[in-house]
Structure prediction request, 529 residues.
Amino acid sequence: MFLDRMKAALTGSPHTPLVFLGNFEVEDQWADGVNGLPRVSFSAGATIVNRMDEFGLLLAGPGDHVVLKEAPDEDYLTHLEELGVALPRVHTVARNDPARTVTLDALEDQKLLAELSGLVGAWIAPHGTSVLEERLAEAARLPLITPSAAVCKATNSKIYSRRAADGTGLRQATGWTVSDMNELEVALDGARVLLGKGGTVVVKDAFGVSGKGITVIAEQQKLDRLHAMIRRRAAKRGDDTLALVIEEWVAKVADLNYQFTVGHDGSAHFDFVKEAITEAGVHKGHRIPADLAAAQVAQLEDAAHRLAKVLHGDGFHGVTGVDAMVAPDNSLYPVVEINARHNMSTYQLTVQELLMAPGQIALARLYPLRLDGRLTYRTLRRRLAGLLLDAPGGSGLLVNNFATVNAGARDGTFDGRLYGLLIAEDRARLAALDTEIVRRLP
Amino acid sequence: MSEMKTIERSTVSNTIAGELAAILNREVTGISDSTSLFDELGLDSTTVLELLMRLEDTLMIEFDTDTLEQHHFETVGTLADYVIEQA
Prediction:
């Protein structure tokens, strides 16, 4: 089981109780004070992202704990129990500020901090570790399963990904890392050559996440415009530092996401590879298993072990996700980006192991919702009658985050997200279930 | 400040609509100052920078990106106000 293996690799025992903390988009913290692309943060999206904390509920085991911004819907918990899911103990923050991560809410809750500090032998397992999670661990007097925030920040930069791939000889798209204005000039010269040959380039924030902080450029004029914008900002701030990567936009037929866990001793375990479904860079789901040949999987396993060695050498241990791509000729780009933290796909593992029968396949899905009022789980269950998973080994949808459905609730209409794992015996049945779910959802 | 200070508000609104249509790759019709950029037109955090760069080019202005705030992007009207303020 992944959870036991991960606990053993990171805490020394498969029985260590963990306190899961779903501080999604921890990149915002890592990016603090870093000069990336000009950007605006939109709190409307943040209210939903901050409730992705509920994913921790299904990654944790019965001896574990999860800190949440709000108590889960009772009917949702009942359904999970009916499925045989042994739930962790839930600790809810005293005050849920929708604009803030679960970590920030927890840091303000003295009673919760005291409660956590009483969990003998427990370790904190954040989505990713920034200075805020370090502060929380200190306040709760519990160790973190990750290395320091400084190491986590360094290893999660896209600049680090490119350098690690270079160092291991793994194939990647032509590109440049940019740490200051001088390196930007060099990178732009290279990018202009690519554009001149009819290519397209992509400029990425070192700490961009979920399609944010990324811009695709096919025309010289647009590149010059971006250059001028960045130059002006640097001059105004009197700060020449930057954190960007510029790469050639290469053709692909599929996005992949694989995961490995780097132990304290430098050992690495390849956990899985899934096909990632993205739209405009935004994560929309996963296909499990990925449609790959054995040789392709072997190539990714080899890449995982090479990257694990580099990460461990730089002081990292922990769960690591890597984005990769399949080119039109079926060759691989084995490292597009390293995310040395939990990934969306990490949170599916415990329920995959528990609820999927051998030979079954799954589709992790995000269903966007447009709601006129709060949707209860009871109502959702009624609406999706016959389509929800009703027993292990069966086919249907398992909701793996219900908090994001109503996170954006306000007067009038609002957007919500329903995350689920759609399980069936074959692709045709998956597609039929998916179509019918979309038809019945608001 | 430059002569762009006299930029016509209607020009700005029309330019925003035109550039949005180009970015979103669809027709953008019937918009007014109160049209929401995110909920109604489908702008998102990935397309904001693209929109700003296009507006700089078309209106021949330069934004101070350190002044960008979420409320500037609520509606076509608030963005038009921001553009005029930056011109």
Observations:
- The longest helix of chain A spans residues 294-313.
